[in-house]
Amino acid sequence: MKFRAFGTLIPPEAALRRLLAATRPVARTERVGLEDAADRIAATTLRADRPIPGTDRASWDGFALRSSDTRRASAGRPCRLEVRGERFAEGGGRGRLRPGEAWAVATGAALPPGADAVAIFEEVDRRGDAILLTRPIPAGDRVARAGEDFARGDRLVRVGEPLTPARLGALAMFGHASVAVRARPIVAIVPNGNELRPPGSRLGPGQIFESNSAALAAVVRAAGGQPIVHPPAPDDPRRLVRSLRAAARASDLLLVTGGSSVGERDLLPKVFASEGHRLFHGIAVRPGKPTLAARVDGRLWLGLPGHPTSCLLNMFWLGLPVLRKAAGRPGPGWIEGWARMGERTVALTEGLSTVVPLRVGADGRVYSTFHSSSAISSLAGAEAFTMLPPGRRSVVREERVRVRYLLPPLGHGLPAPNG
Length: 419
Fold this sequence. Notes:
Blueprint: H1 12-21, E1 29-33, E2 46-47, E3 57-58, E4 62-65, E5 79-87, E6 101-105, E7 117-120, E8 125-127, E9 130-133, E10 143-144, E11 155-157, H2 165-173, E12 178-182, E13 186-191, E14 196-197, E15 208-209, H3 212-222, E16 226-229, H4 237-249, E17 253-257, H5 268-275, E18 277-281, E19 285-286, E20 292-296, E21 299-304, H6 308-326, E22 334-340, E23 346-347, E24 353-360, E25 366-368, E26 384-388, E27 394-395, E28 400-406
Parallel strand pairs: 5-6, 13-16, 13-17, 14-15, 17-21, 19-24
Antiparallel strand pairs: 1-12, 2-11, 3-10, 4-6, 4-7, 5-9, 8-9, 18-20, 20-21, 22-28, 23-27, 24-25, 24-26, 26-28
């Protein structure tokens, strides 16, 4: 069995910078119905074409009136108003409110001309066709003014913004049944290795179920992408190249797992270099040192280690920001904060940064979940991670570390101050 040595290892921050510089947001757009547009990225800026409300409306069930008629109202000398009409939200009721009169109005009903306030029904004493008020009703009370919600020309959504429930509600209010959004980046995932079999198939001697694709596909979806998982590609140069070329042609970004190290059957370094411009091979980090990337025919190819923890951790700190940029989403996918380490110590390595998966304890401290780079259980319960600098000592209990709290659905974001 033959091995090749790594070249110069690139620092983690330099690897991320190179990948982000080589990543372009997907330019394609598509139109989707509002019911399918939640959390999609707006592809255009939309503005209000009219004011809402279009006219002054009641914001409460009650009685529309002239505030000036109630100026002297008190418990000792109630103001009496004759009820001369009614209006509902869908309209109805003609005529103008005259001095000394009131109209019954439902929430959302347009005020009759002449009215400038609403007395809610709980505050009046109904006496047949009249009402009694024992306090003045100020002008504008319980009234939604014309254009108070949106004025003509107000922005409903800005290009590049995520479509939140409130923004979708605003679009529906103006009659939009669909909206133009950025297309999701298509991300091809190709596992590499003779020993790999898809879940659900029958295992032969020496074979294992391939698990990285399911984990990576979840990250791709969380970042706003559309994953396409391909069958495992064998450790055969020609068949591997054919598989990668075919997967890349139908995608915006290619993820390959396994075959990225320096062993005899680690074919990706040579394939990446022959297919395009290799950006790097080897990152000064553990776990996840055997990671490489290339730019091939305008697409980014990223080769991740085959060990499950190395693969997924690298996807968190390295792949997630790249995917979010390709999807047109702001930020790296995490929020940074500080926390104290829990009961475990974490050994550092001279010359290599250390990525540590973390769970957040009820006490606000963070606890390492790492077992080994080949154990997917290392990430069970992890919702954050830290990147520790190279060194010779260990990080010990109560030492403060910078933590990257993964955003939903990958994590819970920044915890409450009390943990």
